[in-house]
Design goal:
Blueprint: H1 19-23, H2 35-41, H3 51-61, H4 74-80, H5 85-99, H6 103-137, E1 141-146, E2 149-154, E3 163-167, E4 175-187, H7 189-192, E5 198-199, E6 218-219, E7 224-236, H8 242-245, H9 247-250, H10 259-288, H11 293-307, H12 312-329, E8 332-334, H13 338-345, E9 348-351, E10 363-371, E11 374-381, E12 392-393, H14 401-416, E13 421-425, E14 428-432, H15 435-446, H16 451-457, E15 460-464, E16 472-477, E17 495-502, H17 504-507, H18 516-527, E18 532-542, H19 543-548, E19 558-566, H20 573-582, E20 586-590, H21 595-605, E21 614-616, H22 617-623, H23 628-636, E22 639-641, H24 645-657, E23 662-666, H25 672-677, E24 680-684, H26 690-695, E25 698-700, H27 705-745, H28 754-763, H29 765-768, H30 796-822, H31 827-848, H32 865-883, H33 887-891, H34 898-924
Parallel strand pairs: 9-20, 9-23, 20-22, 21-22, 23-24, 24-25
Antiparallel strand pairs: 1-2, 1-3, 3-7, 4-5, 4-6, 4-7, 8-25, 10-11, 10-19, 11-12, 13-14, 15-16, 16-17, 17-18, 18-19
Helix pairs in contact: 4-6, 5-6, 5-11, 6-12, 6-28, 10-11, 10-12, 10-27, 11-28, 12-27, 13-27, 14-15, 18-21, 22-23, 27-30, 30-31, 30-34, 31-32, 31-34
The chain binds adenosine-5'-diphosphate and magnesium ion.
């Protein structure tokens, strides 16, 4: 597969003969050129471009990116804010004010409209900015060949003429001419809508006029590799790719809002409707009382604006995007916003083993050589990490010459049947590829073999790449000079060798003259020590079979031995598992590995009960997916071992059926269905494939199980904060309605004018609401049971606290107003004090809303500086308005004395006391039944 690093860099175009590539029209029929012709036309070679040439092309032609649907700019967002019924109402109010000559009212309403639009626009902008920032973190990485050396780069840095390597699960980063491939099939549904796998072949002959769907020698940007491996030449980048030319197709249709937001939109419509009915009732009473039609209309509009939580969906979107940013800090990238709150309700995590629970830093620790009779020599391998220093010791000390030859033979086959690359540079080790493969290269290096050189001297005829569902890999070489393993094929055509490594169960049927039972027992014993066990075998095949990479030729192989690899456990996992348990989240392990290995690792991590219940893929297969027996097995299991990727989906479905809200991790192509089906699909940022990432809701940038737990914690915090926001907005709205209701029923003059209501709404909600989204978690978020899957946001607790707070605010405000008037204060002065009271009430209530269950002071108030700043800013803005000539006239307010301010503030603070008492009482009564909160 790999081109030897010591071969020469290709002839690359210099400044003056580069013109050919320049002229190459975008319409070149790359599919009908041979690989060699395509390479020549791109002035590239089998070893790729040089770094300098690639850099020059990148400068000249630009990055390999598709045009994005431009992000809405601030101005556009601002304009968008005016498309709302609430704004139409306010505009109507402006017109009416103008009509009756209330110039200052009209101007004020107009200014409020602008401010609302600016605030709303900024909020949406912030939400979109963080989404775009996350987008950036999701960049695709590709493996390119530059001057014969493989390197991993950002797909955006690809240029025409680059040669790259692709494997199953990868997204095709540009339009490519295939140079060579093994078992290559792709999914082109993005381009064609056809979702059947398409086989591709570098050697196929394709007519120049062939339609896209028949261009079997090409890979198109945006499609995905389902199986196999390929080496391919970049022939078109960015806008010049097929998908780039039809980029309009990609311009994402307006995405439906996440369910939580949709539910909220519904709820705010409902609340809005109820408010309108209440307002209509009030208006009728006022009209009957002889208030002028215009005043009634203006107040109704202002009341609607103040009390209807129309800004709620946007505020919640902002809250979720704040949570998203926090999760990103804890290595969880959120691809789908609903997953933020979904994580908080998760009851079960089905986790991969390798890389997620373990470090994915494999090292060969043990090699068990086999002879015809069975296990013969047991070698312990020394050394640390990926460094090539370390020796093999056998029971008697140093191995004999013959034993050493045996170890060499095995290491050699494993290094040939290998897709990884490694370079030792002093103490630094640079490696690329699967960690199992890397570990075998390190073993070879410890035994003094040069892995790179070995590959270069052994011509590779064909290969069967490793795919998880197959559990083995094979490489066919034209191994001529191998001592003792005759190079002649059965047909005398010049033979070939095949080197195979993989699970013993997969290799046994290919091997000859081996006692299967004894071998399996030896593997189980090794697995019982927690080793990941791989078998290595070798044999001769015909050259023809080797070139075809024929799996049918894998017969009469000789089992060379078993290898035990150690993968250290992630140190943070045991604690994360404990936290899951206290949070009421079960964890199961799903692995393709040996049941014994899985059992030992589960036990060491403390996953499940002391001796975990292990269910194997074979047991599930016998039970038959969907059957009762299958479901029972799944429900009882703590570890699933030797499961096939396809079974993962069935496991997830069975778990969901038994009532779990399932988060599942996955990395391969075959995991995509399970990831998509799970309530929360979690993919790996480092180890996972592009396909898995595309199907997931969340991505772990560090592949670490503990990050999922952090995500659950943040998910719960986010959900709590969403509730707090809703609580604050709805209860203050209710307070205003109650005030008006009581005042009008009692026959008092209008408590607040339209402009005053608008001002109240602006300085409180406009400034304060989003600050609640910055609340950090309350103590014990991870000690609660998960919330129920379909728990309503408007549950008993919510209703109770909204009614208490809103009712109390409204009633107090009414009583205060009544008292002011009764004391003989002029109406204007009473309104002045009442408005101050309402602003203070809403300031105080923002503090209340910090927690639904705990005292507002259970967490230091300084823990959320945004909230303090918001409350202070709101109060400061109001006090400023009292003194600002012009504004104070429009608002009908004037400075109040310190004593008055203190009196009003004391009254407002009583709301704090009331709500603290309510929290105490409901804590005494225990958590609300049925909600688990
Ligand atoms: P896990 O669930 O722990 O990630 P995998 O599905 O990756 O396990 O691996 C399952 C089995 O496939 C392993 O036990 C091993 O026998 C085999 N295997 C894994 N990686 C390779 C490889 N690179 N080459 C050959 N066989 C492999
Ligand atoms: Mg794996």
């Amino acid at each position: 597969m790999t081109v030897s690093p010591d071969s020469h860099a290709p002839e690359i175009g210099t400044a003056d003969n580069r013109s050919r590539a320049d002229r190459a029209p975008a319409t070149t029929a790359w599919h009908s050129l041979s690989p060699a012709e395509a390479l020549a036309a791109q002035e590239s070679g089998p070893n790729g471009l040089s770094e300098e040439e690639a850099a020059a092309r990148l400068r000249r032609y630009g990055a390999n990116r598709l045009p994005r649907t431009a992000r809405a700019g601030l101005l556009k967002l601002y304009v968008r804010q005016f498309k709302s019924p609430m704004v139409y109402l306010l505009l109507a109010a402006t017109v009416v004010s103008l009509f009756v000559g209330e110039w200052s009212d009209a101007l004020f309403i107009f200014v409020v409209l602008q401010l609302n639009a600016v605030i709303g626009g900024l909020q949406e902008w912030r939400a979109e900015t963080s989404a775009a920032a996350l987008d950036k973190m999701m960049r695709n990485r590709v493996v390119v060949l530059r001057a014969g050396r493989t390197r991993e780069i950002d797909a955006a840095a690809l240029v025409s003429g680059d040669v790259l390597r692709l494997e199953s699960g990868g997204r095709v980063p540009a339009d490519l001419r295939i140079l060579s491939q093994q078992e290559l099939s792709v999914d082109e549904s993005l381009l064609t809508g056809e979702s059947l796998p398409l086989e591709k072949d570098a050697e196929a002959t394709v007519a120049a006029a062939a339609p896209m769907s028949e261009r079997r020698t090409l890979l198109f940007a945006g499609t995905t590799v389902l199986t196999g491996r390929a080496r391919a030449l970049v022939v078109a980048c960015g806008n010049d790719t097929q998908i780039g030319r039809i980029a309009s197709v990609l311009a994402q249709p307006d995405q439906a809002p996440p369910p939580l937001i949709a539910r909220l939109e519904q709820a705010s419509r409902l609340i809005g409707f109820a408010t309108l009915v209440a307002i209509a009732g009030l208006a009728a009473v006022q009209l009957a009382q002889g208030v002028s039609l215009i005043t009634v209309f203006l107040v109704a509009v202002a009341l609607a604006v103040a009390a209807i939580p129309e800004g709620l969906p946007v505020a919640i979107t902002v809250a979720l995007s704040i949570a998203t940013a926090r999760m990103a800090d804890r290595n969880v990238i959120v691809r789908a916003l609903p997953a933020v709150e979904g994580l908080g309700a998760c009851t079960l995590i089905a986790s991969d083993k390798t890389g997620t629970l373990t470090c994915n830093e494999l090292t060969v620790k043990q090699v068990l050589l086999f002879d015809d009779a069975g296990p013969a020599v047991n070698g312990a391998v020394g050394g640390e990490g990926y460094r090539p220093q370390g020796t093999i010791a056998v029971e008697g000390g140093a191995p004999s010459q013959q034993e050493l030859a045996g170890f060499n033979e095995l290491a050699r086959s494993a290094a040939l049947c290998n897709e990884a690359e490694i370079e030792f540079d002093g103490d630094a080790v640079r490696h690329l590829g699967d960690t199992v493969d890397v570990a075998f290269l390190v073993l070879a290096a410890k035994l003094g073999l040069d892995p790179g050189g070995l590959k270069a001297t052994q011509e590779e005829l064909g290969m069967i790449p490793y795919e998880p569902q197959r559990r083995y890999a094979a490489v066919f070489t034209a191994d001529a000079g191998d001592p003792g393993m005759g190079g002649q094929g059965p047909d005398g055509s010049g033979g070939a060798m095949v080197h195979v490594k993989g699970a013993l169960e997969a290799l046994l049927p290919m091997c000859d003259g081996i006692d299967g039972e004894r071998a399996l027992a030896a593997a189980a014993a090794m697995a019982g020590q927690g080793y990941r066990v791989l078998a290595v075998a070798r044999g001769t095949v015909s050259r023809d079979a080797g070139q075809r990479a024929d799996p049918g030729s894998l017969r009469y192989l000789r089992l060379l031995g078993l290898v035990g690899l150690m993968d250290p456990l992630r140190p943070e996992v045991p604690d994360a598992l404990r936290r899951c348990r206290s949070a009421g989240v079960s964890v199961v392990m799903v692995t393709g590995d040996h049941p014994e290995t899985a059992r030992v690792i589960a036990r060491e991590l403390g996953l499940g009960t002391g001796d975990p219940v292990v269910v194997t893929g074979a047991m599930l297969g016998r039970a038959g997916a969907g059957s009762e027996a299958f479901n029972d097995l799944v429900r009882g299991a703590e570890v699933f071992a030797r499961v096939e990727p396809v079974q993962k989906l069935r496991i997830v479905q069975a778990l969901q059926q038994s009532g779990h809200l399932v988060a599942v991790t996955g990395d391969g192509v075959n995991d995509a269905p399970a990831l998509a089906t799970a309530d929360i699909g979690v993919a790996m940022g480092k180890g996972g494939t592009d396909v898995a990432r595309g199907a997931a809701d969340l991505i772990l940038t560090d592949d670490n199980f503990a990050s999922i737990v952090a995500g659950i914690e943040e998910g719960r915090v986010a959900y709590d904060n969403v509730r707090k926001l809703i609580y604050l907005l709805i209860s203050t709205g209710l307070g205003e309605i109650v005030l008006f209701l009581l005042a009008i029923v009692a026959g008092l003059p209008l408590p607040l004018f339209a402009v005053q209501l608008l001002w109240l709404n602006l300085v409180t909600n406009g400034i304060q609401d989003v600050a609640l989204a910055f609340e950090k978690g309350e103590p014990g978020v991870l000690e609660r049971r998960p919330r129920l899957r379909d728990e309503s946001l408007f549950d008993r607790r919510m209703l109770g606290q909204v009614l208490t707070a809103g009712g109390y605010m409204g009633f107090c405000a009414f009583a205060f107003y009544y008292w002011c008037l009764a004391r003989g204060l002029p109406e204007a002065e009473a309104r002045n004090l009442l408005l101050l009271l309402m602003v203070l009430f809403e300031n105080v209530h923002a503090i209340n809303a910090r927690s639904e269950r705990l005292s507002a002071f259970a967490r230091p108030i300084m823990a959320n500086p945004f909230l303090i700043m918001a409350v202070l800013a709101a109060q400061a803005a109001h006090i400023a308005a009292l003194y600002l000539p012009g504004l104070s006239d429009v608002l009908g307010v004037r400075p109040v004395s310190l004593t008055d301010w203190l009196l009003v503030a004391a009254l407002a603070l009583s709301l704090l006391a009331v709500m603290e008492i309510r929290k105490l009482v409901s804590a005494r009564r225990g958590s609300d039944p049925g909600t688990g909160r």
